[in-house]
Design brief:
The chain is an alpha+beta fold and about 150 residues long. It is about 20% helix and about 45% strand. The chain has 3 helices and 12 strands; from the N terminus they run αβββββββαβββαββ. It is globular and about 65 Å long.
Length: about 150
């Protein structure tokens, strides 16, 4: 009986994992790989929200949502929050990054976010319009870098 339960549990866990599509994705904030994020989702055309799961090196969504994502021709926004404990008090940072559809066709993506409210990054980068952060990308075959301020 015990073996039967263990086998069923393993098969159930494998089927749950098989129903998701995974992408090789690393998100760094202020030069540190973030271990987790809260309220993570992809927003398609400002109306449809797709929940995502993330751990360093992996971003995954359900197979159904991946089909929706692949057929989409509109705007895709990656939204998530992180906690910053670097100062005297905790700060919650909310990010909204416009995603290129081809990001999910790359063999890997490294997303580097820099909080321009911090002195170090304020001196180096211009924030995105209306935001207090900016970002850069690295992927197989290329990268998208921000223009750096002259020191």
């Amino acid at each position: 009986m015990r073996k039967f339960l263990i086998i069923n549990f393993v098969l159930f866990a494998m089927s749950m994992n098989a129903q998701r599509k995974s992408y090789d994705f690393i998100i760094m904030v202020d030069e540190e790989i973030i271990p987790s994020m809260t309220n993570a989702r992809l927003v398609i055309n400002k109306s449809k929200e797709i929940p995502i799961q993330y751990y360093p090196g992996n971003l995954s969504i359900s197979l159904t949502d991946s089909e929706l994502l692949e057929s989409n021709i509109g705007e895709i926004i990656l939204k998530f929050s992180t906690n910053d404990y670097s100062g005297k008090e905790q700060r919650v940072n909310n990010y909204e990054i416009e995603v290129g559809k081809n990001w999910f066709e790359k063999s890997y993506i490294i997303l580097r976010i820099y909080n321009t409210y911090k002195k170090k990054y304020k001196k180096e980068f211009e924030p995105l319009k209306g935001k207090d952060y900016t970002f850069e990308l690295e992927y197989a075959g290329g990268q998208m870098l921000q223009v750096r301020k002259h020191k």
